[in-house]
Amino acid sequence: MGGPFLFILMPFYVYILRSETTGRYYCGQTNDPQRRLRQHNDPEYRLSKTTKRFQGPWEIIWKEEVDTRGDAIKLERHVKKRGIGRFLEEAQLVESRCQRD
What is the pLDDT of residue 43? Predict the structure, then answer.
């Protein structure tokens, strides 16, 4: 049977990128935001198709840590369904309210 299992929970992140040249947004999820940003900006990396069709460079303008990939997928869907621009506007309103209180 063996000893107890050691589970290391790696956090996941939902992130929003913005093109520094066009202002266009992109939302995704990952367990390593800095690696993903490098991939999005690397012209040789072919698995980031959406950010390759639109001019960069891309920068991370928002990210949120969640516990599981499932939670990340749910939050990413929520952001995309709401609309990235609208989601960011609402997030800024909440943040400014919290800072006033």
Answer: 87
Sign of the C-alpha dihedral computed for residues 31, 77, 65 and 46 taken in this order: positive
pTM, entire model: 0.82
Report residue 15 CA to chain centroid gap: 1
Q: Which residues of the chain have pLDDT under 70?
A: 1-8, 93-101
CB 33 within 8 A of CB 41: no
The secondary structure of the chain as a DSSP string is --S--------EEEEEEEETTT--EEEEEES-HHHHHHHHH-TT--S-HHHHHS---EEEEEEEEESSHHHHHHHHHHHHHH-HHHHHHHHHHHHHHHHH-
The tokens for 1 are 């049977």
Please check whether residue 50 is in contact with residue 22, taking contact to mean a CB–CB distance below 8 angstroms: no
Q: Taking a C-beta distance cutoff of 8 angstroms, is the pair 36, 30 a contact? A: yes
